[in-house]
């Protein structure tokens, strides 16, 4: 199983919910959504990447480690209680400026200010041959998780409503909020296990895969921001069958994109022969 130090092995008995600002009130995609993304990613790994990941996974799967950063929010250490929350989201007024927030050389955990920093920090740790096993395991789990977070639209939503957490809605008559609806309720409404869900939405269409891989992390956050604002503009509060019919295709696409892009990113890191736009992300622009 996933193996870290004694301090970081302490997994909460109950899941502490993650915020899009600073309080603990929502987890991106919930457990099932993150696991779907991990499961889909596993389908698209090259053999070289799969081999390279074995010592980091230590018997676990990408799906299993995908929820670890959320589960650790109950750990009493300062990082988990006070610092880790900001890794999971970004709020900016103009999504067109998203690429300006990319710091591809970030190599210190203390400098992480938002999800893009968290993604690139994790990438750099995994690429660094001097990184120890524990650091790489930490980085891998966060990378798997944050790629998932980046595809949940409200992790690039508005700061004033905490990414939809403060927008009260009802889902089939039960009180909740907009963020939780997209995190969990839409996915759980399908009544599928994460393996069933992943199997239902998987694709081998080369054109689709190429389109998804023709991107970088900032692009994923721009997409999420645009989706969140379309949903904001609809201003729906009583959600039921019509809402599911309209938005489940979006949820399924984001989960599929997240899984394929996670695999593309991991292949890019661990397999120098992985083909861009087929197995790996497009090469860095500029």
UniProtKB/TrEMBL annotation:
Residues 1-28 form the signal peptide. The lineage of its organism: Bacteria, Pseudomonadati, Pseudomonadota, Gammaproteobacteria, Alteromonadales. The keyword Hydrolase applies. It comes from Pseudoalteromonas phenolica. GO terms for biological process: DNA catabolic process. SUPFAM superfamilies: Phospholipase C/P1 nuclease. The keyword Nucleotide-binding does not apply. GO terms for molecular function: endonuclease activity; hydrolase activity, acting on ester bonds; metal ion binding; nucleic acid binding. This is S1/P1 Nuclease. It comes from the Bacteria. Keywords: Disulfide bond, Endonuclease, Glycoprotein, Hydrolase, Metal-binding, Nuclease, Signal.
